[in-house]
Amino acid sequence: MSHKAAEQTRNERRQCAEQAARASGRRRRLRIMIGTASALALVAAVTAMMLTSRPESSDAIRTAPEFTLTDTGGSEHTLAQHRGENVLLYFSEGAGCQSCIVQMGEIEKQAAAFEKLDVTVLPIVMNTREQITADMTASGVTTPFLLDDGTVSEAYGTLGKGMHAGLPGHSFVLIDRQGRQRWYGEYPSMWLAPQDLLDEIRSNLSA
After folding, report:
1. 48 SS3 class
2. Taking the mean position of all CA atoms in its chain, how far away is CA 183?
């Protein structure tokens, strides 16, 4: 091979190497850009989740809307029949929401504490009897659930506050002995520690 041909070959190899290096650099920059964009998207998503999962509450006092609902055991409940005792309505998505059922199970474990405060807990769901009893049985929950067609959930302002527009959010409504709503708490995280729930009840009943 002549000196000129050898030089040309070296130049061609150098050019190929430079092109390969530039291509590698572009790919690396592209990966960095994609990684940065993904990280920013993740941060935005987490931020949005944190903002939307913040609990909301209200201690505005109003006359609690009356209702008549049948529970999973076939018994009929009206708010009027509970006049003279404190009532805690627990709205949730119900069947298919494991944390919703676990929440009720944990409330049951604190039955003595709720009884001491003279609080009757009435869980309310928009499910069929078959749907919710299947989940109750699987989790060992025994408290009858009241079956709502959406009317009561809407009257208490919890409809569409959760993950599904047509279902109630994970919320609590405290009603005193005179039938007045004393507290509303909404928990998009789908959980409120029973002790914290009891603290809210004590605080709002004594206010």
Report:
1. helix
2. 19
Quick: pLDDT tens for 21-70.
Answer: 777 778 887 777 666 554 444 333 333 333 356 899 999 999 999 999 99
What is the distance between the alpha carbons of residues 193 and 117, in angstroms, rounded to a whole number? Answer: 17
Which residues sit opposite 146 in a β-bridge?
71, 124
Mean pLDDT lowest for which of 52-56, 97-101, 139-143?
Answer: 52-56
Yes or no: say if 91 and 67 are a contact pair by the CB < 8 Å rule.
no
Angle at 49 between CA 135 and CA 150, to 5 degrees: 45
Work out the burial of residue 174: count CB atoms within 10 Å of its CB; fewer than 13 is exposed, 13-18 middle, 19 or more buried: buried
Give me the chain's average pLDDT, please. Answer: 88
Q: Is the pLDDT of residue 104 over 90?
A: yes
Angle, CA 75 vertex, CA 73 and CA 77 arms, to 5°: 130
What are the tokens at 36?
């940065």
pTM: 0.76
State the Cα–Cα distance between residues 177 and 47, nearest whole angstrom: 40
End-to-end CA distance of the chain: 99
Closest to 90 in 3D by CA, of 134, 132, 140: 132
CA distance 58 to 181: 10
